[in-house]
Design goal:
It is a single chain. This protein has 3 domains: 51 residues, no CATH class; 45 residues, no CATH class; 45 residues, no CATH class. The chain has 9 helices and no strands. The C terminus is likely disordered.
Length: 145
């Protein structure tokens, strides 16, 4: 939805209080019913979309320091600064890494049942059978009761 917003706002994310409210209203408008927990969670976490992505001047100053060049004598902090500097200039495209945690997601009972079914060992064996080109060894698994 952030892409949808930026396309209709000259490539900009919400900046003002009014724009942030409009963005949350956009997310809310996608809800089919008012009890969709994942949309409620998205609205509550919308501030992450608004957060500035640029690296602060303080962090830039540290990464430009000599300690940002890792060597065998570097402290743990120096190694971490060097790793951050390398990430930002290579993979990050000038931005810091994203938060490492995956947010919790509310899921339906049906999803949990499917998840449990796929963790069932017999289902795993059937999946292996279906992935194998020679099904002959699968007969004992597929047809046993």
């Amino acid at each position: 939805m952030a892409d949808e917003w930026t396309q209709s706002h000259s490539g900009n994310l919400p900046l003002t209080r009014e724009e942030k409210k409009e963005f949350k209203d956009l997310v809310k408008s996608k809800m089919i019913s008012m009890d969709e927990d994942n949309y409620k969670e998205a609205i509550e976490a919308a501030f992450k979309v608004f957060a500035p992505r640029e690296i602060s001047s303080e962090i830039q100053q540290i990464s430009n320091d000599a300690c940002a060049e890792a060597s065998s004598n570097s402290s743990d902090f120096g190694v971490m600064v060097a790793a951050l500097k390398e990430f930002v200039s290579n993979e990050g495209g000038g931005e810091a890494p994203l938060e490492g945690s995956i947010p919790d997601m509310t899921s339906s009972t049906e999803y949990r049942m499917v998840e449990e079914e796929f963790s069932n060992p017999s289902v795993t064996e059937i999946q292996k059978c279906l992935a194998d080109e020679d099904y002959s060894w699968c007969n004992g698994i597929l047809y046993s009761s």
